[in-house]
Design brief:
Blueprint (H helix, E strand, L loop, with lengths): L2 E6 L13 H24 L4 E4 L11 H13 L4 E4 L10 H10 L4 E3 L6 E4 L2 E5 L24 E7 L19 H4 L4 E5 L5 E4 L2 E3 L15 E7 L3 E7 L4 E3 L2 E4 L5 H8 L8 E12 H14 L5 E12 L2 H5 L5 H14 L6 H22 L1
Parallel strand pairs: 1-2, 2-3, 3-4, 6-7, 7-8, 8-10, 13-15, 14-15, 15-16
Antiparallel strand pairs: 1-11, 5-6, 9-10, 11-12
Helix pairs in contact: 1-2, 6-9, 8-9
Length: 370
């Protein structure tokens, strides 16, 4: 028998995206809600009717009432899809009121998994879940996947948390053995918690988020279409709308600033990209000013845009300063700033400020001349 399903996790519905401007925050939150319909469509197109949500469907234990209500209605509208929802560390079983409301208000095609008892997904296909009991369980909950199922049945594990060979950058050690699928005789282990798609083994995968939420993970956000017909066949499918890019410019004097910048920025749907650009290397003062002007010109095209030029060294030559002024107060200011950019006694942050100020002074002088 062939069984096909979509593996997703970490929707983090209601994520606030604090620190970003209100306009992009609203768009990012709406995209997370729209990911529900995106997952349903990806499942249909792949020939699946079951979506496994491996934890953290909600960003907090007490999501806003409208966040929960609208999520449940969105799932209900995808009536041909069965949603299997596992509690994660952000929405663990400790959030008893949340899961009570999901149980009472959720649609019939939503199945919250509130214990680790095996359950049938289809004839001869069994789910072995490991719901998070609290934010930090402190033990390997996936041991429950050793539970017996009918002989010859396909066994799918569903869990949430880090495996022992990596953590999520928060200084916490992993608790799920990377070989859990082998230990528990699983045909496939669907995991959540890691926000990028990651293969741990032939039968163990993190699906990553369906809608990207940081610059940490490369590649488009999406889900995994899994086919069980012998060995598990896993195919990534894109779902997300937004891309978070961290391009790096490596510059040397004489390079075409505009052409170099064009190579690393999106050439389509810039509005749906968040960009955190870093420049390093060495440029002339005129090229630094040209780069800043080019960045200012393209920034409004994007959903969010930031550039870090702190690692970019500036070669300020005397003839560059002549283009600011040959004498007088402007020339004295330019010379003082240039000296600060090269003063080893100053902190790097102070030298960066001096370089940025010198570049701005150069640009203003050119505007006046024009």
């Amino acid at each position: 028998m062939t069984f096909r399903f979509l593996h997703s996790s970490d929707l983090h519905l209601g994520k606030p995206f604090g620190g970003y401007p209100e306009a992009i925050r609203n768009r990012l939150r709406e995209a997370r809600h729209a990911a529900i319909a995106g997952l349903a469509q990806a499942a249909r197109e792949g020939g699946a009717t079951v979506v496994l949500l491996a934890g953290d469907s909600f960003d907090a234990e007490t999501p806003a009432p409208e966040t929960l209500r609208q999520a449940l209605r969105a799932m209900a509208e995808e009536g041909d899809i069965t949603w299997i929802m596992l509690p994660g560390n952000h929405d663990s079983l400790a959030a008893s009121e949340l899961w009570r409301r999901i149980g009472s208000d959720g649609p019939g095609n939503l199945v919250p998994v509130l214990n680790d008892a095996p359950r049938a997904l289809a004839p001869d296909v069994w789910l072995l879940p490991a719901p998070c009991t609290q934010r930090r369980a402190g033990r390997d909950l996936t041991q429950a996947m050793d539970a017996p199922t009918p002989e010859g049945a396909r066994r799918i594990g569903l869990g949430h948390g880090p495996v022992t060979d990596f953590d999520e950058g928060e200084g916490r050690s992993g608790i799920i053995p990377p070989d859990r699928a082998q230990r528990s005789g699983l045909d496939y282990l669907a995991l959540g918690d890691w926000h990028g798609q990651r293969r741990i083994g032939a039968r163990t995968w993190y699906s990553g988020v369906p809608e990207a939420d940081s610059f940490k993970h490369d590649g488009p956000a999406g889900a995994l279409l899994v086919t069980l017909a012998g060995e598990a066949e896993v195919r990534p499918v894109p779902v997300g709308r937004f891309r978070w890019l961290s391009p790096q410019l490596d510059l040397l004097p004489g390079e075409d600033i505009d052409a170099t910048l064009a190579r690393v920025l999106p050439d389509a749907r810039a509005r749906d990209h968040l960009v955190s650009l870093t420049a390093r290397g060495r440029v002339t003062l005129a090229e630094r000013a040209a780069l800043e002007a080019a960045l200012a010109a393209v920034a409004p095209d994007h959903g969010w845009f930031a550039a870090d030029l702190s690692a970019l060294e500036v070669e300020a030559r005397p003839d560059d300063l002549d283009l600011i002024d040959r004498a007088g107060a402007l020339r004295e200011a330019a010379e003082a700033l240039m000296a600060e950019t090269q003063d080893p006694r100053l902190a790097q942050s102070d030298r960066d400020i001096a370089a940025a100020a010198l570049s701005r002074l150069y640009a203003l002088a050119q505007e006046v001349r024009a």
